[in-house]
Design goal:
about 210 residues, about 60% helix, flat
Length: about 210
């Protein structure tokens, strides 16, 4: 009976592990697609009134036109004259609407053009042996650092600290790997600790 319970439990968990990520992916994709189609609905309606195609086909046509339009604008804006006009226009907008710069920063981060975290570090935030997983966001002339310590499992919220350089231990781990560790509430932190210990050994060798 115990063997059957164990078999049932492991099989059930195995099925959930396979199905749940796929279900979440489908849900997120459906939500994102619905959000996008709601935004472009006026253009979709315009295509529908001029043709007799299905709405999903009209959505696909509008999205294709938008992608092509973005590509053309991206090519044109590379020219010196258009880039000059664009930069001056942005500067004028920033004088009127300061929040425009924040929106642009967010967009740049979302599309991967600009990432706010330069590197990963384990920080002795309490100046003892307690280590905090953090991301370096800025460095300063006095040797100190500004760090962002995300909360788990939601890395979009967290705390900003300004820490002396002696308490910040850079580790040879990618931002993506550290972010996965945060999302999984510390699971997979072995690489972080290993990189930290290797750094300590290297420092000891240098001192020796």
């Amino acid at each position: 009976m115990e063997r059957f319970k164990s078999f049932f439990k492991t099989s059930l968990i195995g099925g959930i592990v396979v199905i749940l990520p796929a279900a979440i992916f489908v849900f997120v994709f459906k939500w994102l697609f619905g959000w996008v189609t709601d935004i472009i609905q006026p253009l979709t309606d315009l295509v529908l009134t001029r043709s007799h195609i299905k709405e999903i086909a009209a959505d696909a046509i509008v999205l294709t036109i938008i992608v092509i339009g973005c590509f053309i604008i991206g090519v044109v804006v590379k020219t010196k004259f258009v880039r000059f006009v664009h930069e001056n226009l942005e500067n004028r907008i920033l004088k009127i609407a300061h929040w425009y710069g924040t929106i642009k920063e967010i967009v740049m981060q979302l599309i991967g053009k600009k990432f706010p975290f330069s590197s990963v570090a384990l920080v002795r935030i309490f100046e003892n042996d307690t280590l905090l997983t953090a991301f370096i966001t800025d460095s300063h002339s006095d040797g100190s650092y500004t760090i962002f310590a995300p909360t788990a499992p939601n890395p979009t919220s967290g705390f900003i600290y300004h820490v002396k350089g002696e308490y910040v231990h850079h580790v040879d781990v990618t931002v993506e790997e550290a972010m996965r560790s945060v999302i999984t509430c510390g699971a997979g932190s072995k690489k972080l600790i290993k990189a930290y210990n290797e750094r300590l050994k290297a420092c000891d060798i240098d001192r020796g």
